[in-house]
């Protein structure tokens, strides 16, 4: 009896960049300068604190592997996962708050994690004698996700231990992955096995699913959920281009580099979504223009420059062509039906 992540239209391999933030914090707390690794993959540190920014998963894999090399720590992902604020992670805190058993927890959890990444699919498989929680990568990675896998091992061992509480027995838990070099043998007393694919899974006694969990969630603060949206190539493009609309070069190679994938993969993903890069850039410019015009803090000339137009007249022609009204009429609200 499998319970699956809802993954329709979510096989493009994008991930919330903020998921890499705990690695950045871990290094800076230990006075290790992360900048060489950030420069290596072309990422600005401040972007890791923005939960609305998405990039291709392989860019994150490369960044975290570079962090590991920089720190000289083979098990960096594991160590970051052990110090990660589990209760501050929306999928965990929300699923646990409303669950009385481990089964209820996972049934909710697999529906919340797609808000974090479209690069993996989560499945809970229930057999007669054991339950298996499986995390499958949607694409075969070109960059080995060694540190991501180590991080996942620590997170999911902690997650399982927190939910089953007094029933926890590491000797009956088995964890598997192709990338076991990110996890030491005998980690936390669980059985470590070499998997056949690029994802990971852990198995445990099926009766754990139906035991009442001892929850301390009443004392947990309410967490603001991230905006619930499909993490598609369109969402990823909007997240990385929002502050770059004034730049001259927004070609497929440039945008693909920002997302951490090759131009042909970007164009193929856009085709699967039934759209094109120029169309999405136009849509984003219109949406940002409407937001800026709705407040009085920016002049129309300033908005024109922010969106890459050399003067007000060029911006006016673009905006009227897309919306049917001029920026001035939009701002004054004389024809709301046309907006």
In short:
The protein is of the alpha+beta class. 43% of the residues lie in helices and 11% in strands.
SS-derived structural category: alpha+beta
Please give the number of β-strands: 8
Order of helices and strands: EEHHEHHHHEEHEEEHHHHHHH
**What spatial order of strands do you see in the largest sheet?**
1-4-5-8-6-7
Q: CATH first level of the largest domain: which class?
A: Alpha Beta
Which radius of gyration do the C-alpha atoms yield? 23 Å
* Poorly predicted runs: 1-10, 217-229, 335-339
Distance between the termini: 48 Å
Structural domains: how many:
2
The largest pleated sheet is described as:
6 strands, mixed
CATH topology of the largest domain: H-NOX domain
Average predicted confidence as pLDDT: 84
Looking at the overall shape, the CATH architecture of the largest domain is Alpha-Beta Complex
Count of separate DSSP helical elements = 14
Helix content: 40-55%
Q: What general form does the structure show?
A: elongated
User: Which percent band covers the strand fraction?
Assistant: 5-15%
